[in-house]
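Ops channel
N.P.: pipeline sanity check, posting one input/output pair.
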């Protein structure tokens, strides 16, 4: 019995010394958990084939109203670190961590660390609320990519330079993508553009391109307004001469059709980047689609002058 205990102790000491000597806090490969689709893309482009990425929840689930499952606990137990939104988009992740008994042990990378956040109007007496959909902005996404690369480099110092270089290359691709559409938008006269959105997810994207959202329809994602709120919103859309309504792609809503019919606005759809399979290219693909939609909407407004 003593020899067995000695062998196990010797192995643990050997493993600890080996990890310290290689500059790694964890064994190879580093197992990185993510809570949202964009973070999968960010991490995949930063780590390449030098780490394993583990989505905390299966593809096809809506992260806005997700209920933790038993498999989630098994997954979180296998992670060395978890990338989280941490400002309202993945509160269920903290429930899973708590249930798995890893609240004090699992390192977390807060993607929104240092990001300027857009406040959201809350009911009287409610806690301060911010817009959690920061990743729809290319500028914020780049900041998050660098944050993720930096924090992963602290856990895996042998690959810190590799992660940093990949982050720079990925950020450059995103900057070029933004520049491509910024050039197109700069050629359009959109002084008469007045837009509303179904919910506040696109605030960071609109802010990035200097566009003001006149009205947000849903008080919370997936929560339809009361009849009184809807009537007030329709009146506001009419009085503010709103001519474009941005709804959510992949999320059917009779409400958006009701508003379109009542106001005559043109309707376009943005991707919320929380649907489909996890992939390294999802963020670029969905961002390009969103920017194409934005250009299309602005061209329509410019042509109608």
């Amino acid at each position: 019995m003593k020899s067995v205990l000695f062998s196990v102790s010797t192995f643990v000491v050997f493993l600890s010394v080996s990890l310290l000597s290689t500059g790694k806090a964890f064994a190879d490969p580093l197992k990185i958990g993510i809570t949202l689709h964009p973070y999968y893309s960010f991490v995949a482009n930063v780590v390449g084939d030098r780490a394993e990425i583990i989505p905390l929840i299966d593809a096809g689930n809506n992260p806005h109203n997700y209920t933790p499952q038993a498999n989630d606990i098994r997954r979180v137990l296998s992670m060395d670190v978890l990338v989280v939104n941490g400002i309202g988009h993945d509160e269920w992740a903290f429930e899973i961590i708590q249930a798995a008994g890893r609240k004090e042990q699992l390192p977390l990378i807060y993607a929104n660390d240092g990001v300027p956040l857009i406040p959201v109007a809350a009911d009287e007496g409610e806690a301060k609320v911010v817009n959690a959909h920061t990743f729809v902005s290319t500028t914020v996404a780049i900041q998050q990519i660098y944050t993720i690369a930096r924090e992963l480099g602290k856990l895996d110092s042998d690959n810190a330079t590799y992660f940093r270089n990949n982050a720079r290359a990925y950020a450059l691709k995103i900057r070029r993508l933004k520049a491509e559409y910024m050039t197109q938008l700069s050629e359009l006269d959109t002084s008469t553009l007045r837009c509303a959105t179904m919910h506040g997810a696109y605030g960071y994207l609109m802010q990035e391109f200097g566009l003001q959202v006149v009205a947000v329809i849903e008080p919370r994602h997936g929560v339809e307004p009361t009849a009184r709120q809807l009537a007030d919103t329709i009146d506001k859309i009419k009085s503010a001469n709103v001519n474009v309504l941005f709804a959510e792609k992949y999320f059917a809503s009779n409400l958006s059709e009701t508003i379109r019919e009542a106001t005559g606005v043109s309707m376009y759809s943005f991707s919320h980047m929380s649907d489909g399979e996890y992939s390294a290219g999802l963020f670029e693909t969905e961002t390009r689609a969103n920017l194409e939609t934005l250009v299309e909407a602005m061209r329509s407004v410019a042509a109608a002058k």
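N.P.: looks fine end to end. The beta strands are 30-34, 51-55, 81-84, 108-110, 119-120, 129-130, 195-197, 213-216, 244-248, 266-270.
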